[in-house]
Amino acid sequence: MQAWELLKDKLQEIEPEANIAATKKKIEHMRSAFKREYKKVKESKRTGAGANDVHVPNLWYYNLLLPIFNKKDEQSRCGVDTLSSDEESRSSEHEKGRKKLNTLQIKKN
């Protein structure tokens, strides 16, 4: 419950009337919006389209949550990245997050 209190306090900085229920609703909304964008990106990569045709998300927090969701995907699949170097350079921030997560996982084990 302490974590919800901290999140509520942070939300109250921009929405003074926010309570824990509003905080949970806000987080669920952000999570759902992220999942929609994540699915669009993933589906656009599966179509075999070029790097220029891959969906570009417009959520400001997309790159912040991406390592969490990529961790889940990386654990469930093995494969070869077939994206062009243009897409790789655009996603270098994502790669840095993945590497940090992998490093943390190795240190845990």
From TrEMBL:
Query: Where do the MADF domain residues begin and end?
Result: 2-63
Renumbered residue ranges of the record's region Disordered:
77-109
Q: Where is the composition biased (Basic and acidic residues)?
A: 87-96
State the Pfam families in the record: MADF_DNA_bdg
Compositionally biased residues, Basic residues: 97-109
Which PANTHER family does the entry link to?
DPT-YFP REPRESSOR BY OVEREXPRESSION, ISOFORM D-RELATED, MADF DOMAIN-CONTAINING PROTEIN-RELATED
Please state what the protein is called.
Answer: MADF domain-containing protein
